Batch of 2 targets.
Target 1
Amino acid sequence: MLTLTSPVETWAHPLPAGLKLAALALATTGLFALQTPPALGLACALTGLLFLTGGTSFARTGLRLLWPLWPFVVIVGLWHLWTGNPTLGAAVVLRMVTAVALANFVTMTTRLSEMLAVFQWLARPLAPLGLSPRRLALAFALAIRFIPVMLDRLGQIGMSWRARSPRRPRWRVLVPATLAALDDADHVAEALRARGGAG
Amino acid sequence: MERNLTHIALFAALIAVLGLIPKIDLAGGVPITAQSLGVMLCGTVLGAKRGALAVLLFLALVALGLPLLSGGRGGLSVFASPSVGFLLGFPVAAFVIGWLMERTTLATGLAATAASVIGGIGVLYVFGIIGIAQMTGVSIKEASLGAALSFLPGDAIKAVIAGLVTQSLARMRPASLLSRA
């Protein structure tokens, strides 16, 4: 579950992440310029072909990542049918699915480390505001490291709740969870200071 | 300096964790995800600037490709989906909540609930509704109605819980509420 990067190596994996992101920005802007269902349908079909160049299992994963969109597709489709504008409805649904699929393609073919490097490069103008690349990298690393730690801790808090109460844990477990996050933050800050500070 | 950085990082992780836990039964059997509760807590506990930065860090992690949004969604594509407005509104909501917490003289719990309603519902929905209308082609009025029907009950409960959690924190460890320091 750790990242959405596809373990299936495709031709797009070795491409520079910055190039893929720039292409994605361009393609998405282009999608919003297209207005008619046939043009958008063509774009959608081309995106499907793009996924197939990575092999069938890669394409199947790409299709599965589109699944969370289905409530929107159904609601928007029905809505535009009901208001008597199926052309607009088709255009909206096709554009939405294609834009999401293209973004997924970039995410699936780019490693976390490469994406992080692009982000840090993009954030360089923020350095005078105190967001130096070093601090930014540290913040990212800390957050990523502490997600599993806090998930574990929340599980433990839930278990100790169940050990004492026949009822299911409710919002009250959030108090010790938040308190633990605050305590961890203090401890890590102290540890960072002891090792020369965050720079 | 280090404390600011670690608080921002750890609260970004907290928002992520709240979205990952399988819908805990927050109140009276209404199954809701706690992600936006995390955003509210960032504002009420960390204050305006740190709260907004924590939410921005969380969104950056999502954009990097970590599946941290509730339901295991993530990657750049979430910013092309109809929920983009809510995502962009998250940091603004946290900032407004924190800003209100820093200024109001109400009792902590009440202040946190009120700030969460104003920022986490009022401000957030403006962004969310504009996003839905833009991405799906429905009118603002219809998008508002849809958002109100599907999210308002859950978010109202979350605002109350944010107030209760903040109040408990204030009682157990008064110094931990950076928004009121």
Target 2
Amino acid sequence: MQRRFPNKVLPYLLVSPSIVVVIIFLVIPTIQSLYMSFFRVSPFGDRLIFVKLYNFTKLFKSTDYVHSLLITLVFAAAVVALGITIGLLISVVLNQRLKGLNYYRTLFIWTYAISPAVAGTIWALMFDPSSGPIVYIIKTLFNVKLNWMMNGNLALVIVIIAASWKMLGYNIIFFLAGLQTIPEELLEAASIDGASSVRKFFKITLPLLSPTTFFLLIMNMLYAFFQVFGLIDIMTKGGPGNATEVLVYKLYRDGFINLDTGFASAQSVVLFVFVAILTALQFKYAERRVFYG
Amino acid sequence: MKKVLVFLFIVLLMTVALPKVTITLWHAMSGSRLPAVEAIVNGFNATHPDIEVVAQFTGSYAETLTKAIAAYRANDQPHIVQVYEVGLQTMLDSGAIVPVYELAGPDFDWGDVIGPILEYYSVNGKLYSMPFNSSTAILYYNKDIFKAAGLDPNKPPTTFSELYEYGRKIVESGAAPGGISFGWPAWVFEQMHAYHAQFYANNENGRKAKATEVYFNKDFGIDVMAEWMKWAQDKVLVYGGREYSANQAFLSSQVAMLIQSTSSVGSIESKANFNVGTTFLPRIEGYPRGNSVIGGATLWVMKGHTQKEYEAIWEFLQYVMKTEVTMQWHKSTGYFPATNSAVKALLDEGWFVEHPNHLTAFLQILSGTRVPEAQGVRLGNFVAIRDVVDSAIEEALQYTGTNYKKEAKRILDNAAKKANTILEEYTMIYGK
């Protein structure tokens, strides 16, 4: 059914604005990063020394970087798993015909509308070791004093919870939309055949939701890798020690605080390749199980 | 009527003939420091009708420096930028600045600048940037908690072992959940070195020639770190974050003591609902006496502006150093006033009698021994090295074993290795 444009120039003209944007904001910086990753650069950029692969060898020899990589994998896996399972759970509940449903929906979705800075501040205040209400409640209930400033694992857990919470609204919106496209007749037919609601969920709802789930899988992964900067910057600044220093935060520290542009560029190149491979793998393997109907 | 018109016309002509020179100042002073900066700028603008200084808050010290660099690369740099002390070597090597001694000419009375401040920021006897907000670390303590724990509120600890002993008493008596917390932990670690006349890096702390090796993993550094680890395990030391967040723990009486910059004295005194005491930093027995060291930031003048603008900048920098201005700055923040004249004036008007906590830092730094170890550390990419040390401290304080010294050595050796690589990379770009 595809109709060709009568004019050969027009289609190019129409897509040109977005191509220009992509070139200026994505392609050129990517090439620049690649170029810079072969140099050591002075903070003010007035001196460039070609160092071949020095930045890359330094990267993979650095225990900090390997540590950061592991932390990122744990962080991303946890954020994606938590975000998708809890998001799905809440969406299924919200898809019921409950009283005051719209209010609940709004309440659950608005976490996505909160800026990372505000979300980070809220969580940091709630878990503040000396004055946080959650710390206080846990202290009175279990007599355990939580201090994530002195406990790296705890800090990571709290950042994971905050990051998943932040993405929850986004996941719920898409799951709700997905759930509403599932034809009532299918579920009705299954009920008539005597299927339990658990069985209906796993045999009908889940497979029919798989395109949404797959989409969210990729979006959540990209979020966990690239978009958690603000949250971490406000909450832990990568600490204590390097316990919450995920790759993108380490990149920021090396590039913008420590002013090591060459090294940071090498990190961005590696991060880019890494996420590209992960996404490609997901498309190759996970997409097989996606049912597009 | 005619006369008025003529007068107005002349005024109009003057304003047209005298276009204002606009000077931009980027700074990192937030919270209660922000209005203090604005007061200086407004005072200057009111008295200098031909110059307008526009002060912009540009985020934390690190963010301000990053922004200034980005702006410089885009040829859109501010006239003046406030850079923290760890950025000193970076700025000196940047090729992007105009040294203030060049702006000043021969007549300016540098001798009036307070000794340790002048020494800290001088390179070969010359000032490259204008001292603005200088401070040093002191010990704050909560007199009410001291009383509740059965301690004499007028006898704060003077040594590490006393501090530990008092801290345990405070925790065990339940007077407070924690003994002590630090602001800027890596800076406190640097302070400890200077305070006990220990070099932090080779080549006299990088002041004789560029430093190529750090010394903080030697015996002294290990001793300090091992002590802190012991304190942390016994709940005497409560880690409070990398900048000012420890103040919150102190203000909410979660800890009885706080090592923090004297620049917090104003805000702590105004917010505390208890009696605040301040005293000198605690010493470790068995090490020589040095002095606490200057921290804070200075104002750097950037290249690429017109002669007329530089004249205006110098007007402004002189204004900042004026006795009344720098006195007011000290009063509203707790930072040192920049000049000896200002200290004298403060003394004369009785300020220190009414605000003894504002005096502590002066007495400490002016009574210390003037040794090269305490003149200040100058390292290439010090920002990154301080970050490495902060991480090392955070790692050490999580330790749960009992072999403190061994673990302190392992962590500090590891950190020193990273720091030495940073120094090596710095000399790779700029030479030795």
